[in-house]
Structures
1.
Amino acid sequence: MKTMRFPMLVIALCLGLVAYTQQRHETFRPKQVWTDTDGNPINAHGGGILYHEGTYYWYGEYKARRSFLPQGGMRDGNANSISCYSSRDLLNWKFEGFALRTEPENRNSDLHPSQVIERPKVVYNKKTGQFVMWFHSDSPNYARASAGVAVSDTPVGPFQYLGSFRPNGSMSRDQTLFVDDDGTAYQFASSEENQTMHINRLTDDYLRPDGQFVRRFVGMAREAPAVFKHDGRYYVITSACTGWDPNKAELAVADSIMGEWRVIGNPCTGEGADRTFMGQSNYVIQTPQGYIACFDMWNKYDLGDSRYIWLPLTIDAATGTISIPWREEWSPE
Ligand code: DGJ
């Protein structure tokens, strides 16, 4: 028996190494199933990325397979919770559990699995030392149109839910957060029945709107905002409003965040660019190497099998032209 131990150990180590290298990703492969470090498909849709102390955190909607709301309800008890993954290289993600869980026992809660919990975004508040999450909180028929807010002392949570409201008394559906270099935070939200975007400035603790807001893209019916800043200017990628179906993306620019926004046009190029490669914008990540544009490729018949389209966002040094070219596979370098 004793002589068998060493070879068995070597075999076990080799098998472990094979499994480990099989799960490691060296490239981004848009539209393909993207597995986490346990080998399970990453389940974090409509998500947002937070970079904190050397680690990226990815928060998103945890969808159950064939989990279409509004009337159907969920099969998986965790469906509609907000999942959290962590990574150092943006390619290999470890499942950290649920940052915010649904409350299946509480029918009256915004966090009941029957409710809409979409597009979570988390930012860090340097003044309070808290991680602040905002998400689209809605009723099953999307009539409540509110924003939910939760806080945590750690990036992975669990976040403590503070409640939902309509920012500045206005509807809030697809939404994102943006923190400017001076620490001021803003919420961008599709408002007024999705016809007009509201940009709501937040209080110093990021927990409420501070009362200052502007109406932009008036009557243009834009949703899925993904905001980033480059060279002192502000950019937002949005989609048109066609439910879970893809449409043409649009990029807009502003010199000041609450100022006037000018529509530039579709930043996507290459095969499928007219329908955002079958995706919908959700976030733009700024990395030391450049920007990554993140899109959801929704599968409305099986939302749990929705995929991700992460592509490099390039900025032409001479002309400043921003484009998101299609790539079947690419590496961060
Ligand atoms: C489009 C939005 O962008 C999604 O987040 C989701 O709310 C779907 N509509 C629902 O139809």
Note: The domain at 28-325 is CATH 2.115.10.20 (Tachylectin-2; Chain A).
2.
Amino acid sequence: MSVIHCRIITPHGVYKETDASIINIESEAGQQGILPNHMPLVTMLKIGQLSMDESGKREEYAISGGLFYFRGNKAEILTDAIENKNEIDVDRATSAKERAERRLSSTDPNIDIIRAQVALERALNRLKVKGR
Ligand code: ATP
């Protein structure tokens, strides 16, 4: 059976290199399941969930957006940050959520609203992937 050889790259280097029988991504076009022999594809990933069946086991990740590239049963995912569900620190994500919410409700004109909104989205996504 064909598999997809997938490499996930962050600014820290190669986060993971694995074979997957399906990669489920979230892009602006919605949710998409990428199976072996899919046509070539380049798409932007949203802050959301990524899942893959690796050696028959479903692995779930929180991903902070990025770029997905697929061709010839090779996938590359470039992202600023990704965590496996079991790597997510709930206390840290909760603190990040509260910090962002405080910034968004502040009247301080120096607050970067877009930055706080994106930080909130990342924190909520981590909590969602963790099932909180
Ligand atoms: P924080 O304010 O807590 O740093 P953040 O959303 O600003 O949150 P990022 O810049 O997205 O953090 O990520 C920085 C690094 O920390 C990345 O390697 C990311 O995988 C990791 N990271 C961030 N939040 C968590 C978390 N809740 N659990 C595990 N790893 C995390």
Note: The chain has two helices and eight strands.
